[in-house]
Amino acid sequence: MNWTEITVEIPQKDTDTAAAIANMTVPYGIYIEDYSELEQDALEIAHIDLIDEELVAKDRTKSIIHIYISECDNAPEAVAFLKERLVAQGIDAKIGSVGVEDTDWNENWKKYFKAFEVGSRLAVCPSWEKYENCENRTVLMIDPGAAFGTGTHATTSLCMSIMENVVTHHCNVLDIGCGSGILSIAGVLLGAKSAVGVDIDAQSVKTAKENAEINGVSDKTEYFVGDLADKVSGKYEVICANIVADVIIRLFENVADFMTDNGVLIVSGIIDIRADDVKKAAAMHGFKITQEYTKENWCAYTIQK
After folding, report:
1. Strands laid side by side in the 3-11 sheet
2. Would you give the end-to-end CA distance of the chain in angstroms?
3. Among the four residues 39, 43, 178, 203, which has the most C-beta atoms within 10 Å?
4. pLDDT tens track for 237-266
5. 64 near 94, Cβ under 8 Å?
6. How do beta strands 138-142 and 94-98 pair?
7. Which residues contact 165 (CB under 8 A, 6 or more apart)?
8. Any idea which of 107-111, 171-175, 207-211 has the lowest mean pLDDT?
9. What span, in angstroms and rounded, lies between the C-alpha atoms of 299 and 293?
10. Beta strands, E only, 134-258
11. CA 113, CA 125: separation in Å to the nearest integer?
12. SS3 (DSSP) at 226
């Protein structure tokens, strides 16, 4: 099996946050180069005091995170996810890849992205494939391009499954950190009157608009570039935020301003080790978690004020 190695260079002070984001892209772990405490680690762990000159010369102010993506996974989606989440966290990152030329792995992963069912009503299908709809499901066509959101990641499929139960024909949907637009489009296909998506990444917004057109819902969707809800107006019955724990915690500060009286906030992208942090922050801002969902090592909640 061939692999793509993605490297993420970040300031050393941001290592822990960036590592948590990086861990969301793969189920099997990451490797971190951090030489900030080289001498101390050499003594305490390796029990040596003579260190190779090449290691001593390493930049102590930077860390490098190494992520390995198999050929059957979507490397461009992983890169897009990393860019989006790191920017949202205000982390200055330099992202690179080795192993396969960009022009190759940007296309090759497509042969592994096949149609699949989500929940009891939805099916997600790549825009370049045909889906045999034997169960008469609502089919969402997606071409993620350079944006996060094929629906295959546990965090996204959790959101879509939850949306089946909370989206109604009278509601309006807000998707914060919309990526490819998959959740906002799913909302409209499930019957919502309209959906608004916002993302900090301009390329994601462009991709979301294209996917809305593919699914014939351009007239019911709107997308724009923004940081969380800073450019959002109006009230929404359903708000989705499939983003990392730290950003969700920050979102709690003002998201209630955009929720209707009985509005539902769906949050996902929460690795299990950060679940308690999100719960505490929700309670601190007067929110009540009404349902909890888990898939693999990921958590998602429905929350009301």
Report:
1. 31-34, 62-70, 3-11, 94-98
2. 48
3. 178
4. 999 999 888 889 999 999 999 999 999 999
5. no
6. unpaired
7. none
8. 107-111
9. 6
10. 138-142, 172-176, 194-199, 221-225, 236-242
11. 8
12. coil
Dihedrals phi, psi of 264, to nearest 5 degrees: -115, 130
pTM comes to 0.71
CA distance 149 to 201: 13
* Residue 231, C-beta contacts closer than 8 angstroms, at least 6 positions apart: 198, 224, 225
DSSP, res 12: G
CB distance 240 to 183 below 8 Å: yes
Q: Which single residue is written with the structure tokens 């001593």?
A: 56
What is the distance between the alpha carbons of residues 300 and 293, in angstroms, rounded to a whole number? 5
Distances (CA, A) of 39 to 56, 201, 210: 9, 39, 52
Backbone angles phi, psi at 301, to 5 degrees: -135, 150
Strand order in the sheet with 116-118: 116-118, 122-126, 138-142
In this prediction, residues 162-180 reach a mean pLDDT of: 94
Distance in angstroms (rounded) separating the CA atoms of residues 160 and 167: 10
Distance CA 271, CA 140 (A): 26
What is the 8-class DSSP label of residue 26?
-
pLDDT score at 37? 57
How far is Cα 247 from Cα 177, in angstroms, rounded to an integer?
Answer: 10
Q: Which of 91, 105, 73 is CA-nearest to residue 82? A: 91
Tokens read off for 211 = 């996917």
The letter for the amino acid at 188 is V
- Kindly report each contact of residues 80-83 with a partner whose C-beta sits within 8 Å and lies 24 or more positions away, as own/partner: 80/144, 80/146, 80/147, 80/148, 80/179, 80/201, 80/203, 80/204, 81/24, 81/25, 81/148, 81/179, 82/6, 82/8, 82/21, 82/22, 82/25, 83/201
The percentage of the chain sitting over the pLDDT mark of 70, rounded to a whole number, equals 82
